[in-house]
Amino acid sequence: MNPPIIDENQNEFLELIEAETYVDIERLRDMSRHGIPDDLRASVWKYLLGVNPGDKAEQMKREHIYFQSVKQQQLQNNSSLGLFYYSKRQNIILSVVQQSLNQSKIKHYTIEELLYLLRPFESVYMSDPIQPNDGKDLEKNIHDMYRCFEVFLQKNYFKESLSYQVAKLITLFKCTQPDLYQYFVNEEVEPNEWCLPWIKYLLSKQLPLDCVRRLWDTYFSTNDFDLHIYVCLAILQYYNETLMELEYSEIKYFLNNIYTIDKSTEDGENSLIRIIPHILKQAYNFRAYVKSRQLI
């Protein structure tokens, strides 16, 4: 469970997204950088990703056109996202990923790999178990998830070479944390054993979902996926002392299963979520340092 967000903050979000004619998206972005209330994230992400425009009339027009095209597709193919709610949850998820993969045309991900990237969206738009009688609300949630995921995969982050991004992270790791970098070299920890997955999955495979959602609030609000590299550096720095005490196999496990390291606190909250604000702050500090030194 995320730390409780004060009612005043939630009311500010509600005032923005429930505006009658126009949603101030710039204001929404500014607020979302610091985290979005859990029960409003499904609505806010649609604005941040550009699925919904700020103009409410244009929003209704787009939705009408979209659902008309869905109905037309149903008539032509006798199958579409609009029929998903009659299927099991797993079939829904696989169908969303398959259609998103076809639309985005990204070549360096398999369906199985994209399933990890879809998990945060699934947790936002399909958090409750699916029942056949959920009807139109469920169908709309499925479409919202699909549209957001499709736009998400069209971001420039997924168009960059994975090898380039890995090389960038390793270069900065070596420059900013030379002792830990050398320790990894000595323990023969290869970049592809941890760095590639961190880049490829945007930490959706390595962190608890509440932490991923919180990080992505910031990524989406600033349209700044470049920050992810610096988030990775901040995580390495945060766990520096712990990592320096581990051996090869332990390091590899730790970096690929961070969600298992920090156990829940007495109040049932995953303790990792509490360090995300610190990680983000340090990520911005790393980026400022790198730019000031022109390291890349």
Automatic annotation (TrEMBL):
Entry-linked PROSITE patterns: TBC_RABGAP
Any one GO MF annotation of this record: GTPase activator activity
TM ranges: none
Domain Rab-GAP TBC span(s) in chain numbering: 35-223
Source superkingdom: Eukaryota
PANTHER family in the cross-refs: ANKYRIN REPEAT-CONTAINING PROTEIN (PTHR22957:SF268), TBC1 DOMAIN FAMILY MEMBER GTPASE-ACTIVATING PROTEIN (PTHR22957)
Name this protein carries in UniProt: Predicted protein
